[in-house]
Amino acid sequence: MIRVTTLLIRQSTTVLAWALLALATMTTSCNSAEPPAATPQARQTPATGARVTGPRAYVTNEVSGDLTVIDLVSQSVVATIPLGKRPRGIQLSPDRTKLYVALSGSPIAGPGVDESKLPPADKGADGIGVFDLKQGKLLTVLHSGSDPETVAVSHDGRQLFIANEDTAQLTVIDPADGRVLETVKVGGEPEGTGITPDGKRVYVTSEDDGAVFVVDVDTHKVVGSVEVGPRPRSVVFLPNGSRAYVPSENGATVSVIDTAALKVVETIHLGEGMRPMGGVVSPDGAFVYFSTGRSKMVVIVDTATNKVVGSIEAGIRPWGIAISADGKTLYTANGRSNDVSIIDIATRQVTKRIGTGTGPWGIALVSE
User: Fold this and answer.
1) Which pTM does this prediction carry?
2) FRET label pair with 278: which of 17, 114, 248, 329, CA 20 to 30 Å apart?
3) What pLDDT score does 2 carry?
4) CB within 8 A of 233, min separation 6: which ones?
5) What is the spatial distance between Cα 65 and Cα 74, in angstroms, rounded to a whole number?
6) Rounded to 5 degrees, what angle do the CA atoms 70, 78, 339 make?
7) What is the pLDDT of residues 125-141, one digit of tens each?
8) DSSP assignment of 289-305, as one string?
9) SS3 breakdown of the chain: % helix, strand, coil, rounded to 5?
10) How far apart are CA 323 and CA 220, in angstroms?
11) Is residue 276 helix, strand or coil?
């Protein structure tokens, strides 16, 4: 794990300063299984070299508790910035000046784990980190309800919608002052969140209920729910907003929802053993790409036919997935190999892997 720290070394260097410098250097070559302390001071420490211009990727690392910044021109890591405990979902603000990152003090636990044997949750670490892109640092952490996993941003930037995994609710907050505007009851273990292209509704996937809950952005009322496959993980939309695609990890399927009728109109079978997780739509809406976690693949679906038309081996446990603005390149955050894969869509080949922190989870692209 590459960790960038800011050390002010005076001309009259002391033994203690040299010891700290040696420790910082040693951490750049060692992966840590422990995230940094979730104190506001630790989470707001700026990092040298964090200000980057040009196209870049920001990757949340769930285990090491930091943010990897990748220069997409040189295809190299330019900064690693401490955030807090379990950074996962990440979203760019509409004005492209900030990133919002879901932070959680709940212990990491996979499906079927006996939660009574886990360490207690650190609720003081829960929140939405606000990361300033120009300054290259974490500005503050907003209270967001318990165990936030993902966050969606309204089109006007005035509301954040947060999936609270362990309380079966959606929390709505005002990012300007951190006020909680509403808490909305949804299905158990809400995870994926997404705003429709017209900005009027937010979709929330419920792993326990095997359903998607649809909430009005203005009234904060649930306007409907749609039953989908088991353990839905995320939701993405065609650019025209007519269809939503919801991958079901435990069903190896993708449910295609008619967003006007709020019903599933087609179920796409990805193949035996596939465990679809994240999704991203091509800019022209012609294809949807799904990461498949433990299945290692990115699966390609043609939206004209809703058929699988190809797959690419991306890495070990690809979860977060993003696509370049020109639709030519995919990026996957590979949680078990601690790297990001750069994939050329035309050749369907991984062209490079770039090391990250430990447990990369989400990825956001920023271009200037």
Assistant:
1) 0.86
2) 114
3) 35
4) 191, 192, 205, 207, 247, 248, 249, 276, 277, 278
5) 24
6) 45
7) 999 999 999 999 999 99
8) EEE-GGG-EEEEEETTT
9) 5, 45, 50
10) 30
11) coil
